[in-house]
Amino acid sequence: MIGLNPALPPVSATNRAGKVLPDEPFRVERFNVMDADVTLHAKQIRRPKGLPLEDMNAKLNLVDRVLTLDPLDFGFAGGNIVSIIRMNAQQDPIASQARISLRAIKLEKLFPAVDVMKKSQGLLGAMVKLSGPGNSVARMLANADGEAGFATADGVLSNLLIEYIGLDGGEIIK
Question: What is the pTM of this model?
Fold first, then answer.
């Protein structure tokens, strides 16, 4: 289980310097203004060199203050990240659910800026299910509960990488 204390105080912009996840609150009042049905196909994504995003397909639906992204599909490291995300703004804070699957991610492309990853081989897959309340991405994830599973196929990681990230099973057994 993944979970943190929902009684945490609100995170302010001042104590978020250098953080990755945005804590800018969603403008929930905008969910009331309209309904929407939008499809986006992006053949290319401009991104930092170290982020292996390739393309994107997304379908957004907003009806009665419930926003659904189904699918939110990114080409990523030679495979895909396919997500279904639902945000219900009919309540405060917003109730969100996400199912995210990583499919056939190539280990050698996962961190292109890390030299030891270039010697890795194989595929990575994962399934993550999360749900939690919050009016920003950071709050939703800070309050999330869920489950995750990971698997590799034909995987080979460099010894240096295994030592670097602490995945040496022999050391764990000791």
Answer: 0.75
Angstrom distance (rounded) from CA 60 to CA 67: 7
Q: What is the pLDDT of residues 30-51, one digit of tens each?
A: 888 989 999 999 999 887 777 8
- Could you read off the pLDDT of 142-159 as tens digits, one per residue? 999 999 998 888 766 656
3-state secondary structure 103-137: EEEEHHHHCCCCHHHHHCEEEEEEEEEEEEECCCH
Helix (H) or strand (E) holding 57: strand 53-63
Q: Where are the alpha helices (DSSP H) in the chain?
A: 107-110, 137-142, 159-165, 169-173
Return d(Cα 7, Cα 152) in angstroms, integer: 36
CA distance 103 to 174: 33
Give the span between the Cα atoms of 42 and 15, in whole angstroms.
34
Is 77 in contact with 110 (CB distance < 8 Å)? yes
Q: How far is it, in rounded angstroms, from Cα 32 to Cα 66?
A: 10
| Residue in the block written with tokens 């905008």 | 30
Rounded CA separation 62/96 (Å): 14
* CB-side neighbour CA atoms (13 Å) of 124: 20
